Amino acid sequence: MAGPEAPRVALHEVAPRDGLQIEPVFVPTERKIAWIDSLSETGIAKIEATSFVSPKHVPALADGEEVLRRIRRRPGVRYAALIPNARGAERAAAAKPDEVNVVISASETHNRANLRMPRAASFAALAEIRRALEGSGVDLTSSVATAFGCPFEGRVDPKAVLDQVTRLLDEGCLAVTLADTTGMANPLQVKRLVGEVLARHPGLPLTLHFHNTRGVGLANALAAWEAGATRFDAALGGLGGCPFAPGATGNVCTEDLASMFEEMGVATGIDLDRLVALSQELPGLVGHDVPGQVRAAGRPMKLHPPPAYAA
Q1: What is the mean pLDDT of residues 37-56?
Q2: Which long-range contacts (CB under 8 A, 24 or more apart) does 65-68 make?
Q3: How many domains are contained in the chain?
Q4: Is residue 1 part of a domain?
Q5: 211 and 242 in contact (C-beta within 8 Å)?
Q6: How far apart are CA 49 and CA 51, in angstroms?
Q7: Residue 303, Cβ density class (10 Å: 0-12 exposed, 13-18 middle, ≥19 buried)
């Protein structure tokens, strides 16, 4: 376990939004609320609780307002929601999350596929969102989707990502997330881009959002940490995925990421045993097994009695 003087990271739980949004079965509102309340007790720094996308497009999160109004908000935990436009911002502001997140892709084609609009329209919408939030007390943040690669266009120019981060900050965003939306990043690429972003914007609250599509999610998180990142999105059990990466597994798994950092002596503030226990309940919540490793194998120092012949 990391000591009081250990380096620290903040883990942001995105499963209630990013994990549930593609699940084919609607998780009842009461169970969502109880789940988020339990997550709030684990030491997670932030929970992305829901989204305010049209219920027609994301029916799994049609109960966003009720969820945000009824969860028990634990002091020290921030609660976030994803929004697509000014109407979503107005709906979210009425439910009072601590912050809202707006996604704009670094890739034009992905932005059109994911948001059904060109990037220019997304930036115009961002200005409308900022105006809609004025006086609400809700912070505005943004994610750069496909920051490390696009499933339609391939490699993304790092300069385009750097320029987008600068523009988002100029537009009033208080924090930025770099998202490896379909799991195309590699550790060397991550280390370089994170280093460049933090060099250009010292002190920026920068979050990394990795998917484990090709099995290198934890390696990418480690590379980002080595480059100076201290905030990471993750999903309990590794829930989630992307409709534009067929067969893809989900986000980096929260308990796996927390375990890795804690074993390295990097403090997360998380009660890992409690988090693992919640992950073990996920199949009952979503109706299928989940890919997280620590929930299956146990924590690294979970010891076992030796076989009789070795005793």
Answers
A1: 96
A2: 65/91, 65/94, 65/95, 66/29, 67/16, 67/29, 67/32, 67/33, 67/36, 68/92, 68/95, 68/96, 68/97
A3: 1
A4: no
A5: yes
A6: 7
A7: exposed
Stretch (H or E) spanning 127: helix 119-133
What confidence score (pLDDT) does residue 246 get? 65
pTM of the model: 0.95
Q: Determine which one of 150, 173, 242, 253 is catalytic.
A: 242
The count of C-alpha atoms lying within 13 angstroms of the C-alpha of 156, restricted to the half-sphere facing its C-beta, is 33
Secondary structure element (H or E) that encloses residue 86, with its range: helix 86-95
What the block records as the tokens of 54 is 């049209």
The residue whose two tokens read 């490390």 is: 148
Q: Is residue 227 part of a domain?
A: yes
**Any catalytic annotation for residue 253?**
no
pLDDT of 70-119, one tens digit each? 999 999 999 999 999 999 999 999 999 999 999 999 999 999 999 999 99
User: What are 231-265's pLDDT values in tens digits?
Assistant: 999 999 999 987 766 666 789 999 999 999 999 99
CATH code of residue 61: 3.20.20.70
Residue 2 lies inside a defined structural domain of this protein: no
Q: What are phi and psi of 37, to 5 degrees?
A: -60, -40
- Centre a 10 Å sphere on the Cβ of residue 92 and count the other Cβ atoms it contains: 28
Is residue 4 in a domain?
Answer: no
CA distances 65 to 3, 68, 81, Å, are: 39, 5, 10
CB 162 within 8 A of CB 200: yes
Residues in the chain: 311
Alpha helix (H) residue ranges in 116-186: 119-133, 158-170
Query: Strand, coil or helix: what is 54?
Result: coil
pLDDT > 70? residue 3: no
State the residue range of the domain holding 105: 10-310
Name the percent of the chain lying above pLDDT 70: 96
Pairing of strands 99-105, 139-145: parallel
Question: What is the rounded distance in angstroms from the CA atom of residue 91 to the CA atom of residue 95?
Answer: 7
Q: What angle do CA 164, 238, 184 make, to 5 degrees?
A: 40
